[in-house]
Design a protein that fits this description.
With 124 residues, the protein is mostly beta strands. It contains no helices and 11 strands.
């Protein structure tokens, strides 16, 4: 079974950009939906973005216009390009894989496999 592995987190200043990667350890993502969630200590994990197939995408309102999700041509990696980063984007970012229905795409319960997370810190 594919296990997602995140990379690309780090410390950046407000307004800068960062690209996160989610790799399919053990194969490809096949027809699964892949999503990014984020979590700060003491709060629930929240949906950021998802991609189904190569072009069906969804974004949280809080990141629309600043973040884009894409899938590489070999279907082995998903990228989350984050621009104009803000301090409130600081969180651990998790990649999730599953086959959610429309009503569960933005919910934690819609996904079966999770990565270990990568930390993004936006601070001056």
């Amino acid at each position: 079974q594919v296990q997602p592995v995140e990379s690309g987190g780090g410390l950046v200043q407000p307004g800068e950009s960062l690209r996160l990667s989610c790799s399919a350890s053990g194969g490809t993502f096949g027809t699964d939906t892949v999503a990014w969630f984020r979590q700060v200590p003491g709060k629930e994990r929240e949906f950021v973005s998802s991609i189904r197939w190569f072009s069906i995408t969804r974004y949280a309102d809080s990141v629309k216009g600043r973040i884009s999700i894409s899938r590489d041509k070999d279907n082995r990696a998903i990228y989350l390009q984050m621009n104009s980063l803000k301090p409130e984007d600081t969180a651990a970012y998790y990649c999730a894989v599953g086959r959610p229905i429309s009503s569960t795409i933005s919910t934690v319960g819609g996904y079966n496999y999770w990565g270990q997370g990568t930390q993004v810190t936006v601070s001056s």
